[in-house]
Amino acid sequence: MKLIAVSAGLSTPSSTRLLADRLTESARQELTARGHLVSTEVIELRGLAGDVANHLVTGFPPPRLAAAIDAVTGADGLVVVTPVFAASYSGLFKSFFDVIDPDALTGQPVLVAATGGTARHSLVLEHAMRPLFAHLRAVVVPTAVYAASEDWGSGGDEYTDGLPARIRRAGGELAALMAARPPRAEPEDDVGALERQLADLRFD
After folding, report:
1. pLDDT in tens, 102-127
2. Which domains does the chain have, with CATH numbers?
């Protein structure tokens, strides 16, 4: 199984990348416990910003961006994490998914997450990120994860689970969706497709 994380963090080190790593590892551990062999990769959009802008203008992805798009659309599951800018996902995050074919993520399990300075921005998960991936017809896991600055190292309280517990729950939900998803059909080669088309043309 291929598990891909997309991180739109702009700094180095980045709390967005850290959250992406922890969510990916949580899902990987759960899938491994279920007996699946899992490969993981984190795509950092920071290094692809220029390529994304060029693709939006020209309509042709440079090689690095094309490889990133192929990895995302070919994954068995996605973890997507953005910092909050102006009460929504970042422009770079949205631009990356704008250059992906609108049908390419249909049925794909996706875990959405975001980072921000305060908990006031946590609704970005529900009013921006979940609708975006619903529009792309992906299957978004029930638990979305928001990490404010004060969440790192917090164990939560009697009313709210701490960040580690939310990460475990969301990772488990993503793993369950990935494990339940039917295997993807291998694309048919050109010769096989031609043979089927000719067979359809046979006359009685």
Report:
1. 999 999 999 999 999 888 889 999 99
2. 2-200 (3.40.50.360)
